[in-house]
Design goal:
The protein is of the alpha+beta class. The chain has two helices and eight strands. The protein is elongated, with a radius of gyration of 22 Å. The mean pLDDT is 88.
Length: 150
């Protein structure tokens, strides 16, 4: 039964990671026209970096184990949220309050089409994890029913 709980944790970590990814993408889209931030300059696109979390014990990788007294749950881990420092596009608009001396305004490096594509990918990944979680729940309930009837 502990294997099914490991599977629940793995699926849950995927749900959490994809939710953070969707939130980050939403922030990118919301700030696609933000030319002035508290840090100065236009908004910079943010990217979420994932990695696989492997459960290990003293003998090496296994399903779920304890390493030096700390539980290590397998699944997906968010390593960082990075800022994309690539330059944004410039538009000539001398009347804009954020225009430079030549009359150009630097807009964020956010491409809404790219963000929407990433959002679709994150949504599909989230839905896949929901499907896995639901299947695991059904299996656990079926196992409990079998145990009651035995």
């Amino acid at each position: 039964m502990s294997d099914i709980f490991s599977a629940f944790r793995i699926s849950t970590s995927g749900l959490t990671a994809q939710r953070l990814r969707m939130d980050t993408i939403a922030a990118n889209v919301a700030n696609a026209e933000t030319t002035r931030t508290a840090e100065g300059g236009p908004y910079k696109r943010q990217l979420v970096v994932f990695s696989a979390e492997q459960a290990q014990n003293r003998l090496g990788p296994i399903g779920s184990a304890v390493t030096a007294g700390t539980a290590v749950t397998p699944g997906v881990r968010v390593d960082a949220i990075l800022r994309d420092d690539s330059p944004g596009h410039k538009v000539y608009d001398p009347d804009h309050p954020d225009a430079d001396a030549q009359g150009f305004v630097t807009y964020p490096n956010v491409n809404v089409v790219t963000e929407m594509t990433d959002m679709l990918s994150a949504t599909r990944s989230y839905e896949a994890n929901v499907t896995v979680f639901s299947a695991l729940k059904s299996m656990a309930l079926k196992a409990l029913d079998i145990g009651r009837n035995a």
